[in-house]
Amino acid sequence: MDVTPILENLNDAQREAVTAPARPTLVIAGAGSGKTRVLVHRAAWLIDVEGASPHSLLAVTFTNKAAAEMRTRIEGLLNVPVQHLWIGTFHGLAHRMLRRHWREAGLPQNFQIIDAEDQLRLIKRLFKNLEIDDSRWAPREIQWFINAQKDEGLRPQHLGDEGDPNRRQQIALYEAYEEVCQRGGLVDFAELLLRAHELLRDNAELLEQYRRRFRHLLVDEFQDTNAIQYDWLRLLAGSDGVPFAVGDDDQSIYRWRGARVEHIHQFQKDFPDTRVVKLEQNYRSTSTILNAANAVIANNLSRMGKNLWTEGAEGEAIKVYSAYNERDEADFVIGRLRDWIDQGNLRADAAILYRSNAQSRVLEEGLINARIPYRVYGGLRFFERMEIKDALAYLRLIAHRDDDSAFERVVNKPTRGIGARTLDLMRQYARANACPMWRAAGALASDDLRGRAANAVAAFMSLIERLDRETTGLELHDQVDHVVYQSGLVEFFRKEKGEKGETRIENLDELVSAARSFTPDPANEMSRLDEFLSHAALEAGEGQADAWEDCAQLMTMHSAKGLEFPLVFMCGMEDGLFPHQRSIADPNGLEEERRLCYVGITRAMQTLYITHAEQRRLHGMDSFSQPSRFIAEIPDQHVEEVRPRVQVARPMAARASRGSRSAGAAAMAPGNELGVRLGQRVRHKKFGDGVILNCEGQGAHARIEVNFESAGTKWLVLSYANLELM
Fold first, then answer.
1. Catalytic residue among 35, 195, 336, 594
2. Is the predicted pLDDT of residue 252 greater than 50, yes or no?
3. Do 646 and 695 touch, CB atoms closer than 8 A?
């Protein structure tokens, strides 16, 4: 058999992984080392060379985009259709399994998936029903608690209050939430995974059936698995399964949402015959960038260990800029970005990374002033947009009258005279009679409500019944189109003046297009509409809302994972900000912050700038910080200090704490003999409070640039300004 097409263009380590014998395999894949290629070629090798049935493979990814890419590439390699293969996200595959075995899972056949927003709305409604004081108990905190327990595989009955009344209340709310979800046939994202795990764990015959079918388990981004995901994989593999896990312990950055880097070490204990293959050749970055990343991550003790290398160019040194404050930092970044654009490069090939979302404000202001188009990566996704969720709620209610979340979302949208008091009456009736809001509305409209409120509720229910009748038998996209227009949503958003209203209507039209292009799974026994609604719920939180355009990219370090850019700026590299203050004293937290730094560095392909500020105003507070310890971990031979435009005095506290790398960069500022410094807050009799941004000249001729809160930026002659120092 000719195996050349499958193995061509693979390096030695990739080839070793792809052709590994049928036993548990752990592939430690460094940044930019071709992990997706290895997964795809492994699947092709198993099918085409080892003779495995395509239906014996189960491939798990962390995004729908990655799953779609894997399907396309396997299909291209083998020239066989793969749409029926079990390739998808953990949530997607769990959903598929639950739809097939809804009885065994203890779910209604038409169970509905709720996203994070619907889940929070349900919890808030639960608070009202139970008369819980939300000033003491934050709904988001309870949402986090519930999801965290589910991620660990724990139901309310598994939890002890440990004598803590607060924990006792959290457990009680978790239990009440579960009752509401079970009664309404609602399944949140964490429940998908937990319920799928319990389905296999508690049904020996079914578990054995799936173990016989899925002998080969391919897992992407293995370092990001949480407890329930890993337990589900381990359960499915059993003693005869052949798991093939690809991950990078150095890129495990999601501990805060339950990911456990320890699973990479645990894998070798749970599967004693594990073969470990390391992919260390990088195809993305220059050797300078890789050497810097290697040096930083080497300071972490609990890692498998690997050393990225490349056959590519050495590349330019990493530029480190010491800014006076966050505005000086933004000016520097935007100036270098402008130079990049002027050299004919695409704006979209440049990324500005930061540790905290709050840092983007000053950067965005600078980009707006410089008239450089930009995009904040990770904004609202398509299926998360308000108008899309409104339309989907109508569709959900048409399909399932007992969907309380959908009912509450659209019962008065567009506004039809159903106020808060009427809604409260419905909730009370539903709670007292253990029935859905729809039934409560019908009962109240017939008996208890009077006048306008009764007419409005009856008209709404009549509208839903009519939409149901009119869309029965229509093609999916015609159903969506009819509901979008006949519900009144288009007319409602048309009244929203300006571009925003037009955009909302365009998005609703795009929802119709999404329904037209939707491809159902032939194996599912759901209605086309139900399958589309489930697809929309699973897609929420993935993909970007806007079409591609040539914009500079702004994002957090976490959002940057998996992306690459020729030019990267890592901003705010200061102790207390990055690494974050809450992680500095925690060895595990500090190691995760260092992994996040490693991820940031390895996003850069050609040019990397690292910036830090000696003074930063963030969250309304001024702080003086030392440069991030991660900067000092980069060897000097890979770093080039970028000097400030003018020589100025740094604040004494910052000067005293600076390391040797920046020593000597702070000379006397123009006008410093008069007792001012950059970043200092001052008050002017006419212009009010402001911050010193710049200085030039000496002695009596010294001028300073001050950004006043109410009067904007002004240049003043220092000796005549009569400034009050603050």
1. 35
2. yes
3. yes
Round to whole Å and give the CA distance between 418 and 429: 16
Q: Give pLDDT, residue 713.
A: 74
Mean pLDDT in residue range 444-455: 82
**35 carries an active-site annotation:** yes
Dihedral of alpha carbons 530, 535, 541, 544, sign: negative
pLDDT tens digits along 321-336: 999 888 899 999 999 9
Rounded CA-CA distance 550/528 in Å is: 37
pLDDT for the residue numbered 545: 35
Task: For residue range 95-153, list pLDDT tens digits in order.
Answer: 999 999 999 999 999 899 998 888 998 999 899 888 887 777 788 889 999 999 999 99
Q: Contact, 690 vs 681, CB < 8 A?
A: yes
Asked if residue 159 lies in contact with residue 149, where contact means CB atoms within 8 angstroms, the answer is yes
β-strand partners of 375: 553
Q: Looking at residue 377, what DSSP letter applies?
A: T
In the chain, count H helices and then E strands. 29, 22
Which residue is catalytic, options 221, 331, 481, 530? 221
Q: Which of 327, 409, 603, 677 is catalytic?
A: 603
Q: Map out the domains of the chain with their CATH numbers.
A: 4-102+194-281 (3.40.50.300), 112-184 (1.10.10.160), 318-380+548-662 (3.40.50.300), 382-539 (1.10.486.10), 672-725 (2.40.10)
Packed helices 386-399 and 476-486: angle between N→C axes, nearest 10 degrees = 110
Q: Is 36 a catalytic residue?
A: yes
Which pLDDT does position 648 carry in this prediction?
39
Higher pLDDT, 669 or 446: 446
Sheet hosting strand 275-279, strand order edge to edge: 86-89, 57-61, 216-219, 242-247, 25-29, 275-279
221 included as an active-site residue: yes
Q: Is 201 exposed, middle or buried (0-12, 13-18, 19+ CB in 10 A)?
A: middle
Distance between CA atoms of 86 and 109, rounded to whole angstroms? 21
Count CB-CB contacts under 10 A for residue 213. Answer: 14
Mean pLDDT of 629-646: 85
**Set 151, 191, 220, 408: catalytic member:** 220
The answer to whether residue 220 is catalytic is yes
365 is annotated as an active-site residue: no
Determine which one of 61, 89, 170, 251 is catalytic: 251
